[in-house]
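Good morning C.,

I know you're traveling, so I'll keep this short. The sequence:
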Amino acid sequence: MASTNSANSSQTTAADNKEKASAAKPQEQEEEVDIDLEAPETEKAALAIQNQFRRFQKKKK
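The tokens, ready to paste straight into the viewer:
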């Protein structure tokens, strides 16, 4: 009887996890991003991100 209870609890857990995962997914909505791509701060941030990515790629090799 103990093995039956553990089997049922594992099935319930799997079903609960699926429900939680589907409930956690937000409805697909387009998010409007208001970023000024011409702003100097944006350009500096983009360059910093690109430099870090290049360093990561070199280190990865």
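Safe travels,
E.
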